[in-house]
Amino acid sequence: MNTPRFFLFAFLTSALAMSAFISTAAEPTDRCCALTPLDAIAPADAAVTTLPDKSLYLLDSSWKNQHDQTVKLADYSGRPVIILMGYLGCQTACPLLLNKAETLLAELPEKDRSQVKPIFVSFDPAHDTPTSATAYIAERGLECSGWDILMGTPDSVRELAAILGIRYQAQADGNIFHSNIISVLDDSGVIRAQLLNLSDEPRPVVEALKGLTR
């Protein structure tokens, strides 16, 4: 068996063993303003060719983005990434997660913000589509800071959520209860910092981002 994939499998198996929980949704607030024009988003450096054992980019899942393009997570290698999971119909926690992520980015020097790629991964591939993702980005002004929204199969979503330590549970009314975690990946797809709750002190995550953009 390929050694990196063996370690990733062991890591994923451990993550999947965690019990599910229902997170407490926070009240929505006004979203913060956009950061950087889309045209100013810097291209990634050369993709990392040798991936560490715990890299998310070893996952072979395919995703659709808001442009209806098929991508793999490894396509984002070569630059820092800030990644969170939610769903487009969420009216409480998800807007707060986006606000928090943009607040973290705003703490970076302006010259460094464009080095970081922000990614929103949908829990709800049955309802979230490239068309609805494009509308969501426009409505919330997310194109200004270069967000990608990714949609995959239910299995791909479960796999990624487990590795990121995110638990979620669909409800009969269509809502999805989920943990509110923001993760920072380095250029090779390894988790370097996480904001585990919206109320957590953000400084360690900001410092991790600064370290990856220097």
Instruction: Sketch the major β-sheet.
Output: 5 strands, mixed
H/E topology pattern: HEEEHHEHEHEEEEH
How much helix is in the residues?
25-40%
What would you call the shape?
Answer: globular
- Rg estimate, integer Å: 16 Å
The fraction of residues in strands falls at 15-25%
Low-pLDDT ranges: 9-44
Number of helices: 6
Describe how the helices and strands are arranged.
Elements: H1 3-16, E1 62-64, E2 70-72, E3 81-86, H2 93-106, H3 110-113, E4 117-122, H4 130-140, E5 148-150, H5 154-164, E6 168-170, E7 176-178, E8 182-185, E9 191-195, H6 203-213
Parallel strand pairs: 3-4, 4-5
Antiparallel strand pairs: 1-2, 3-8, 6-7, 8-9
Helix pairs in contact: 1-5
Question: Can you walk through the features of this model?
Answer:
By secondary structure, the protein is of the alpha/beta class. It has helices at about 5-15, 95-105, 110-115, 130-140, 155-165, 205-214; strands spanning about 60-65, 70, 80-85, 115-120, 150, 170, 175-180, 180-185, 190-195. The strands form three sheets. A five-stranded mixed sheet has the order 5-4-3-8-9, with helices on both faces. Strands 1-2 form a two-stranded antiparallel sheet. A two-stranded antiparallel sheet has the order 6-7. The termini are far apart.
